[in-house]
Amino acid sequence: MTERGRVLFVDDEGAMRLAVSQWLTLAGFQVSTFASVEAVLAKISREFDGVVISDVKMPGRDGLDLLGVVTQRDPDLPVILVTGHGDVPLAVEAMRLGAYDFLEKPFVPERLAESVARACEKRRLVGENRRLRTSSRHDLATRLIGTSAAMEKIRADIVDLAGTGLNVVIVGETGSGKELVARCLHDVSGRSEKRFVAVNCAAIPEAMFEAEFFGHEAGAFTGAIQRRVGKFEFADGGTLFLDEIESMALHLQAKVLRALQERCVEPLGANRVVPVDVRTVTAAKLDLRDAARDGGFREDLYYRLNVAEIRLPPLRERKEDIPLLFESYAHRAALAHGREPRSLAEVQLHDLMAHDWPGNVRELRNAAERFALGLGVSLAAAPPAAGVDASLQAQVAAFEKAVIEAAFVRAKGEVAEVMRLLGLPRRTLNEKMARYAIDRHRHQRSAENR
């Protein structure tokens, strides 16, 4: 018989432990029994993939105590409580505290087995979801490179949104990586087996808009020799990425809104509608909320598209990510062109950290590719991340933090190596880490994911 799940059963009565163990074993479960709360607690952790069943009334710590500890360790671990006392208030209190089920003795074996089966299935789904989230976070760390708090939040947001199916708006400057974020969102979602269709709205002439988005039949207009599937239909079941959505004319926005509301499109020249199921991920260089308020964007379309939002900070606001990004792009470029990977000199790293990067990640990637080909790093210096309006002290502090973060990236989080690179004693480095809230463990985790 295939094992249906693991069960930890706690009861101070030996006869009850034996009976329940036999019932559930015959039902296909793997059962371990315990005479006290203290004994079973040693077996319970977030990694435990089964279910806990406990009697409520026991000498010493009782079932409610156990429920409280389990809830603290892992609120997603199902706990089934049983009691020989017909106590409705107790049952209500147990469910309020988070019990999965509450059974009154005597109960028939089938009723217990049914409850355990449902609880085991819930636990299995929780474990599967956690494994997927862990895997997704690791995969994202190799694609969305960076150890800054901003990048960690973006990766977490992607994982959180991936399973929801919600429409998402990504806001960021040119070159900040909006399409990459959109692709990552698609790839970790349940739509990953279907197409990711990217459309640059600014590149489509108004006269061709309907044909491009909704498709057309053969003969629908001059030059329409054969039927063409539009972007909506082509992305059916997958993700439709609308880049530079702010450039779309208002009357065309109305057509997109209708397609999203009706979940269907009508190709040009057709007398039928085509059902479509797409998730939209939209990118904009400006705040669509402001554009809608000013009349430059349809407010109803904004609320349809912007169920959730991801904001990408410009590279100048996350300078601690620059060394790791540059190293990654340079290494890839060297491999692509058959060159030996090269290391940055300190003065070159200084130039990278001082540059303002108006072109964001796209500009950085181009610089890394030039460096990999032996063309050097030639960049105009720019004010540090604190900005020209900040005081000299604030600008110096921002630059110092960025340099220390860069050293941690190069040293893969090893403090001794950072001390060597920067020529700092341990006490001074510790003081600066505390002052700038630098977490070396974050860089160690990032190095492990690379």
From TrEMBL:
GO terms for biological process: phosphorelay signal transduction system; regulation of DNA-templated transcription. One of its GO terms (molecular function) is ATP binding. It holds the Pfam family Response_reg. Residues 6-120 form the Response regulatory domain. It comes from the Bacteria. Keywords: Activator, ATP-binding, DNA-binding, Nucleotide-binding, Phosphoprotein, Transcription, Transcription regulation, Two-component regulatory system. Coiled coil: none annotated. SUPFAM superfamilies: CheY-like (SSF52172), Homeodomain-like (SSF46689), P-loop containing nucleoside triphosphate hydrolases (SSF52540). The modification 4-aspartylphosphate is found at residue 55. Residues 144-373 form the Sigma-54 factor interaction domain. This is C4-dicarboxylate transport transcriptional regulatory protein. It comes from Blastochloris viridis (Rhodopseudomonas viridis). The gene is dctD.
